[in-house]
Design goal:
Elements (H helix, E strand, L loop, with lengths): L29 H49 L15 E7 L6 H4 E5 L6 E9 L5 E7 L10 E7 L4 E6 L5 H10 L1 H4 L1 E9 L2 E8 L6 E4 L5 H5 L11 E3 L4 E5 L2 E5 L3 E2 L6 E5 L14 E7 L1 H25 L18 H14 L13 E3 L5 E3 L1 H10 L1 H8 L2 E4 L4 E5 L7 E9 L5 E5 L7 E4 L2 E4 L9 E4 L5 E8 L2 H13 L5 H66 L1
Antiparallel strand pairs: 1-15, 2-14, 3-11, 3-15, 4-8, 4-10, 5-6, 5-9, 7-8, 11-12, 13-14, 16-17, 18-25, 19-24, 20-21, 20-25, 22-23, 23-24
Helix pairs in contact: 1-6, 1-10, 1-11, 7-10
């Protein structure tokens, strides 16, 4: 603390400035003395500031590492065959390849296909015999679309097997008003109305069903409005059917299928067919055959492996930076986390996972290899061949795998541990068909029961595991699990990088809390140093005042002495 002026008073009210040695009776620079004393007291706070700065650099590095690990976890999880259906699973993605069609119309112009994840792969043949159409009805022509029709009454309309609505017509209503009244009820009837201008003085009302394959139906037209408009004949039949309502018809693997729509999703499980066009000749019974091959989405898997490699290499480069040394053999200036145990542990776990092999397949089977800096490289030719020829084996190498001896038992969530499990699950049922207990080796304390779910308890080897049993009888089911290399990398990355409970987050939180304490300690030290400086300045001011009083007294005594000597002489 700098002190520019210090003054004090004594009983004789003498004062003295201590701003410099020139104005001080003693010749001492009190300000410099105070400043030096305060600086000595604050030295510990400066050391703390340096420690806080180092911690902030570590926190920033941990956060960077955390982000890289989260990216890697996401990429690895997509290849890990996750049990959780909410997670992306590239191995369950499906795509459809179409071939066939005609010489003039390609298969993709005749048929569109979307496939749900997990759909059974295979090949199917499809012939589109007939497209579904929506019914259209026309009226007789009217000379004016805005003039009064002089018709009044009500009629009811709707599609077959659908809801209906009553349309009211007043004598002053025009053709345009009737169309508007019909459209006002289109959400209920699924029928829309439009007006076609045939010529300068000829307008026609057109009714269109918004659903294919369903006929437009009328009733309660006691005033004959529809007949007067020329929509129906006197016997109630259509007067002018522009397009007949018909359903679609296809042949799938030799089986005839009829539906009311051109969008068919209930023939092959997980497959939606969109019918676009048909070249089928009903007179000859011939039409183009489309071959549809449902396969795993290999391009998505390949892209996923590339994303994984990029994410892994980013993590590896970060770790290498933290392990770098300078020219003096010590940590490089960029190695903020040099010799950090957590970084070292994560690095080892990732490396061990990538070295996983099942005795036949390893990362080299995927066309992956290590560069000299331990980053990964991809051989696309080898990867393409592996995906085409050994997809199931590669899925086993990469992902989480489980099997049960009962079709009634399935896994809803995988265990937290990546250790392989092989056990016999004894399931006991109550008389009402509910699950009474589940255990291994007679120990039923390992699981809790919630409806049809069997949940592994925390603290056991089965923690995190959720099984679903839909059987009605007591039985013993063999269960086995194992983790592939992508699953291992996901667990390592997620355990460390999770921003809520991950190990890096714990380090970040601890350092943040510690910095808060250090900041408070530094503030206390500086506050105490400032108070000490104020106290010391007051003390020096009092010393100076006393020195000034003594100097004044000495000067007075000297004057008396000089006067006395002068008078005696």
């Amino acid at each position: 603390m700098a002190v520019s002026t210090i003054s004090g008073s004594t009983s004789s009210t003498s004062t003295a400035s201590t701003s410099s040695s020139a104005s001080s009776v003693t010749g001492l620079d009190y300000s410099a003395l105070v400043a030096a004393a305060v600086a000595a007291k604050e030295a510990r706070a400066d050391t703390i500031d340096s420690e806080i700065s180092d911690n902030e650099s570590k926190i920033s590095a941990y956060e960077d590492f955390q982000g890289l690990l989260n990216t890697l976890a996401t990429a690895a999880e997509a290849l890990s065959n996750p049990v959780d259906s909410s997670s992306t699973n590239l191995f369950s993605e499906r795509t459809a390849f179409l071939s066939g069609g005609s010489s003039t119309v390609s298969a993709s112009d005749m048929l569109g296909v979307s496939v749900d994840d997990g759909t059974a792969t295979g090949t199917h043949t499809i012939v589109i015999k007939q497209l579904a159409t929506a019914e259209k009805l026309g009226s007789s022509t009217q000379s004016n679309q805005t003039g009064a029709l002089n018709l009044s009454g009500t009629f009811t309309l709707g599609l077959a097997d659908g809801s209906t609505a009553t349309i009211s017509v007043a004598s002053t209503d025009s053709l345009k008003d009737v169309a508007a009244a019909i459209n006002k009820q289109s959400d209920n009837t699924n029928i829309s109305a439009s007006i076609i201008q045939v010529s300068d003085s000829a307008y026609e009302l057109v009714l269109t069903a918004t659903d294919t394959g369903k006929a437009i139906e009328f009733s309660n037209d006691s005033s004959g409005i529809l007949t007067s408009l020329g929509v129906t004949s006197s016997d109630g039949s259509y007067a002018d059917e522009l397009t007949a309502a018909q359903g679609s018809e296809i042949e799938v693997d030799g089986i005839d299928i009829q539906r009311s729509s051109n969008v068919i999703s209930d023939v092959l499980s997980g497959v939606t067919l969109d019918l676009y066009s048909s070249d089928y000749d009903s007179s000859t019974g011939t039409g183009s055959t489309i071959t549809m091959e449902l396969t795993a989405n290999l391009s998505a898997i390949k892209s996923g492996i590339s994303t994984f490699v990029t994410a892994y290499n980013a993590v590896r480069n970060f770790i290498s930076t933290q392990q770098a040394t300078g020219t003096d053999g010590g940590p490089a200036s960029s190695a903020v986390l040099f010799a950090d145990s957590q970084v070292r542990s994560i690095s080892t776990a990732l490396q061990n996972a990538l070295n996983l092999t099942d005795g036949t397949y390893s990362i080299s089977s995927l066309g992956l290899s290590f560069n000299s800096d331990n980053t990964l490289a991809i051989d696309s030719t080898t990867l393409d061949s592996a995906l085409s020829d050994n997809l199931d084996d590669l899925e086993t190498l990469l992902g989480f795998n489980y099997s049960t001896s009962s079709t009634e038992l399935s896994m809803l969530r995988s265990p937290d541990s990546t250790d392989s499990l092989n056990f016999n699950l004894d399931i006991t049922m109550n008389a009402d068909g509910s699950i009474a207990s589940a255990g291994v080796g007679g120990d039923t304390s390992l699981f809790t029961i919630s409806g049809t779910r069997i949940i592994g308890k925390d603290g056991t080897a089965y923690a995190g595991m959720t099984l679903v049993y839909l059987g009605s009888q007591s039985e013993t089911v063999s269960v086995s699990t194992s983790s592939g290399l992508a699953d291992l990398i996901y667990n390592t990355s997620d355990t460390a990088g999770d921003k809520d409970t991950g190990t890096l987050q714990n380090l970040i939180d601890n350092l943040t809390d510690y910095d808060t304490t250090l900041t408070s300690n530094a503030a206390d030290i500086r506050s105490q140093a400032e108070a000490y400086g104020t106290q010391l300045a007051t003390y020096y001011a009092q010393l100076e005042a006393q020195a000034q009083t003594a100097a004044t007294l000495l000067k007075t005594l000297k004057a008396y002495s000089d006067a006395s000597n002068s008078s005696s002489s």
